[in-house]
Amino acid sequence: MVLLSGGWVEVGPDGYTDIIGEPGEPDIIAIPGLPSEGLGAQGLASKETPADNTANRYITTRIDNKTLTPGQSLTIIDEREQGQVNYVLIKASTGSTASAGKLAIFLQLDNYAQGGIDSGVKNLTLDTLTDLNLPSDLPGMFHLTVDKTDEKVALFRGSDQHPHKERIRLIISNTDSSQNLTVDFIEVVRFQNKVLR
């Protein structure tokens, strides 16, 4: 039997499967991860029993071949959560577009951002990272793994000593005022402990 809008309809075997018995009426089932009545019970969320905000999962965000217009900013991630960044990898290239060094990166973890939160989202460019020439063994700081005139790859490594407890936000911006900028890829891998509401 199959439930259609008018009720149960008899359906015979299809030659591959024998239908044995009749199905029962549909039930409301428990949804894993949501609280309900009773000790340890799972069920539907309500005002009295809000959804469990525990995440405990790895999240990978990847965007390929993105073109930013002059002055454009793009928010990649903006989440209120507790967790830890594994890494952020961004590759920009120069072709018939603006210089790869004109890409600005703003990664905010709680109240910290390399280059400062008060300085704005367009402060830390890949050209600035070229000038700084930061070593690769500093967790919690962007550095360049590829630094050519036509291609730049920035890497941020997270650290166990610096988890975020309130917010993660990643914004990229084209600081060139007249040309588009090509971002070949952006990849962020993070562990999310808990979603905050």
Tell me the helix content.
Answer: under 10%
Decide which structural class fits the backbone. Answer: mainly beta
**Overall average residue pLDDT:** 81
**What proportion of the residues form beta strands (DSSP E)?**
35-45%
Number of helices: 1
Overall spatial form: globular
Low-confidence stretches: 33-43
The major β-sheet equals: 5 strands, antiparallel
| Rg value | 25 Å
Q: What is the N-to-C order of secondary-structure elements (H for helix, E for strand)?
A: EEEEEEEHEEEE
Spatial arrangement of strands, main beta sheet: 3-11-5-9-8
Give a written overview of the molecule.
By secondary structure, the protein is mainly beta. The protein is 4% helix and 43% strand. It is built from one helix and eleven strands. The strands form three sheets. It has a five-stranded antiparallel β-sheet, covered by helices on one side. A four-stranded antiparallel β-sheet has the order 4-10-6-7, with no helix packed on it. The chain has a two-stranded antiparallel sheet with strand order 1-2. The longest helix is centred in the middle third of the chain and has 7 residues. The chain is globular, with a radius of gyration of 25 Å. It starts with a strand and ends with a strand. About 6% of the residues have low confidence.
Secondary structure: elements and pairs:
Elements: E1 2-4, E2 7-9, E3 54-68, E4 73-79, E5 81-93, E6 103-109, E7 112-113, H1 126-132, E8 142-147, E9 151-157, E10 168-174, E11 181-195
Antiparallel strand pairs: 1-2, 3-11, 4-10, 5-9, 5-11, 6-7, 6-10, 8-9
